[in-house]
Amino acid sequence: MSIDSWIRQATGEAAKAAERVRQAEAALKQKAGGLEKQVNGQALKAAQWIGTAAGHIDRAGKLAASASAAWNHVLPAAEAAAVKRGTGVLSAAADRFAASGIAAIKDAGERLQASVAGLGRKLGVFGTAGQPATPAAVAEVKPSSQLTPAVPRLAGATEATRHLLVLMPPAGDGFYFGLSATAFDLLRRQTAFGIDSVPRLGRPDAAQAVGQGSETLTLSGAVYLSHRMTLGKGNAGADELALLRKLGLALKPLQLSTGSGELLGRWYMTSLTEERSYLIAGGHARKQTYTLEFKRYGDDYQKL
């Protein structure tokens, strides 16, 4: 496994941990002032989520330590840049966990900080191909939000990046939407609340709450392949949609996070619609539009 892959998996574990910590903190807040049965239930949920979050943080630390141990040569420029970004994300996440008021999360966050520090030292020793880094230039790994104010980070978010949206599966490589790679034009999020109506004889229907409902997320955009070919990127749009289709066919929930660092939770990809128009010789399309639909996965994670 490459160093970049280890760090990508580590950032995925950190994102999962952040979601569990958020749920645990919400459960602990709801515990105050509730009935005894509700208090016990919230405390049990919080304990389960805290344990799960600590496990994800420790796995992220082990992956970071493995990447650091294997890093013994100068990386190619593209891989080194990705490693540096991933290390920054892990550093910001470790700092947030270490500042938690929950003891187990705080301890796990401090262990992650130690692992990320090892990556920071390697950044000071090995640079990119043809551009060796100096220890002074990378002595401290900083979140990208501190390097440039152009990408604001949300309060409590893990880290701000240049991506529009990131899809991260439970294992393996994720998919990154960016301005230069399958950028979408529209993001539509619909929340349906679980309100149903019960017919009553001779009277209006009685509305009642039957559940928390469901959420759907829709992305739509267009890729102009002739323009991408002019830039030397080949049939990039078709290849990117093939990767998205592969993620959907895996039938696994995906962790979604925005470029501003907001964690949207886990979602199933339910459909991918692709349209090709303005065809040229060979059946290639000059314009390719797509629509992606996601359905929210339950927050209990009982099947994982």
TrEMBL record:
Organism (species): Pseudoduganella rivuli
A Pfam family: Phage_P2_GpU
InterPro entries named among the record's database cross-references: Myoviridae_GpU (IPR009734)
Name by which UniProt lists this protein: Phage tail protein
Entry keywords, A to Z: Coiled coil
Coiled-coil segments: 7-38
